[in-house]
Amino acid sequence: EEGEFHKSVGTGVHGDHRELHTTRVKPPQQGTNFILADSSHEGLEGIYTFDSNTDEIAVNNSASWKKEYHHPAVDAHYNSEKVYDYFLNEHDRNSLDDEGMAIISYVNYGTDFNNAFWNGRHMTYGNGDGDYMVPLSAGLDVAAHEMAHGVITNTANLEYRFESGALNEAFADIFGALVDEDNWEIGEDIMGPGAIADGRTSLRSLSDPSKYPVNEEYIPYGDGEGMYPSHMDEFYDLPMHLDNGGVHINSSIINHAAYITGEQIGKEKLGQIYYRALVTYLTPTSDFSDARLYIIQSAEDIYGEGSEEARATADGFDQVGIYE
Ligand code: ASN
Ligand code: ZN
After folding, report:
1. Where in the cell is it found (predicted)?
2. Residue 1 pLDDT more than 60?
3. pLDDT-based confidence at 26, cuts 50/70/90?
4. Residue 307 Cα, ligand 2 centroid: separation in angstroms?
5. 125 beta partners
6. Same domain as 306, residue 166
7. Which residues pair with 116 in a beta bridge?
8. pLDDT tens for residues 182-207?
9. Cβ 64 under 6 angstroms from ligand 1
10. Do 110 and 256 share a domain, yes or no?
11. Is residue 92 assigned to a domain?
């Protein structure tokens, strides 16, 4: 029957077998097609995965999505649902806007494109150049990072520059590490053979940010050793035209504070605390010091003043040199 919800199976970028929620449609000619449109979630407008090459929802002539061309779309569709489930189950949040807005991804974007982004309306994933990166939708933490930008836009709406922008980036990374529970790295599943051979086994690390160097042109603006900063002593005073004033660089200081707290109380409680601060207290112009105040306040709201959780939250900020 046309428009009928249908289960498909597929293969992801790394060969994983995936079960997918899809829709059966009737093409103009004979036969049956299946599209990456998931309408199985009550109260959600749907999860849709588009192919940038056709500007249409990804389509296949069977319910088995195993051709290599489909691998990036299979992972984007699968990971979008995982991230949707995370926000619903952990935070009672129904999609990016908490009103069930459609979750839309575009895959196969550009040529050799080593990035993914949220443009204010949907996610877009490149396929990488095959050496430094593989198709970016393969990373659950990458999908979570990009979708978290959508949540942030709809909540604190942190301005994408200087410290507020670094907080925006840090919340995106922290949710990336919370959804993809296995480790404290971002992008470990999207690095290509050339990057891995060079020792770049992830994009960023929350546990040890300074294991990776920053872009060469940023080095003169930092007080550290040219590595990602783990402490305010290594803060990069970047001008606006370089990474919007260091939004992807100084974010690692907040990332590291979250890691320190998370190691003490676990990822579930860390998520409750940071999510509450994001939706309840933070504003577009909040800076690092505001973040300390509000994130500790959130821990106290949920777990009580003087609780182990509140103390672990404060300890995270103490250890990276952020004070009120
Ligand atoms: N992947 C990056 C991000 O989400 C892309 C960008 O800088 N716009 O922040
Ligand atoms: Zn980002």
Report:
1. Secreted
2. no
3. confident
4. 32
5. 116
6. yes
7. 125
8. 999 999 999 999 999 999 999 999 99
9. no
10. no
11. yes
